[in-house]
C-alpha cells in the first residue's frame, strides 16, 4: 500500500464518527499491527512510525504516536487519554540552532502497564512490565518492573505487588 493511502487511512480513523470495527480495519490497512487491541478515536500516528500493539491492549482517546521510531505496546497495556509517545529526538546543536541532527529510538511498553492521562514517554524508553505511570508524568528513562512512577521527570515512588 502506498504511503499516501496509508496516511489517509491513519487520518480518517481518528474520527469519532468511525465505528470501532471499521477503525480497526483502517489501521490494519495502513500497516499498523494491532491484533485485537481496542483503539479509541483520535489516535494520531505519524507517517513513518512502526507500531505493534499486542492483544488485549487498550489505547484511549486522543493519544499521539510520534513519527519516526518503532513503538511496541505489550499485552494488557492501558494507555489513558492523551498519552504521547515521542520516538524522535535531536542532538544538541550550536547556539544559533539548538535543535541539531534528529534521531529516533524505540519505545517499548511492556505487558500489563498502565500509563495515566497525558503522560509522555520519550525515545529509547522501556516501560517495564506491570508499571503504572501517573497522569502527566514525563518518562525520560526506562523503568524497573512493578513500580509507580510520577512527576517530571518521572521517578519511582512505590513498589507494586507481583
From TrEMBL:
Keywords: Acyltransferase, Transferase. Gene3D superfamilies: Hexapeptide repeat proteins. InterPro entries: Hexapep, Hexapeptide_acetyltransf, Trimer_LpxA-like_sf. GO terms for molecular function: O-acyltransferase activity. GO terms for cellular component: cytosol. It holds the Pfam family Hexapep_2. The keyword Transferase applies. The keyword Ribosomal protein does not apply. Belongs to the transferase hexapeptide repeat family. PANTHER family: ACETYLTRANSFERASE C18B11.09C-RELATED, SIALIC ACID SYNTHASE-RELATED. This is Acyltransferase. It comes from Sphingomonas crocodyli.
Amino acid at each position: 500500500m502506498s504511503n499516501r493511502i496509508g496516511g489517509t487511512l491513519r487520518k480518517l480513523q481518528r474520527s469519532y464518527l468511525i465505528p470501532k470495527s471499521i477503525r480497526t480495519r483502517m489501521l490494519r490497512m495502513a500497516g499498523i499491527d494491532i491484533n485485537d487491541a481496542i483503539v479509541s478515536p483520535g489516535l494520531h500516528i505519524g507517517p513513518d512510525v512502526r507500531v505493534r500493539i499486542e492483544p488485549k491492549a487498550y489505547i484511549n482517546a486522543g493519544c499521539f504516536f510520534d513519527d519516526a521510531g518503532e513503538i511496541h505496546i505489550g499485552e494488557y497495556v492501558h494507555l489513558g487519554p492523551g498519552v504521547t509517545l515521542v520516538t524522535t529526538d535531536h542532538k544538541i546543536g550550536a547556539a544559533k540552532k539548538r535543535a541539531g541532527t534528529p534521531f529516533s529510538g524505540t519505545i517499548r511498553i511492556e505487558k500489563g502497564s498502565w500509563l495515566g492521562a497525558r503522560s509522555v514517554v520519550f525515545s529509547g524508553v522501556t516501560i517495564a512490565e506491570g508499571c503504572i505511570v501517573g497522569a502527566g508524568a514525563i518518562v525520560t528513562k526506562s523503568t524497573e518492573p512493578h513500580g509507580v512512577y510520577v512527576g517530571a521527570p518521572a521517578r519511582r515512588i512505590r513498589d507494586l505487588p507481583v
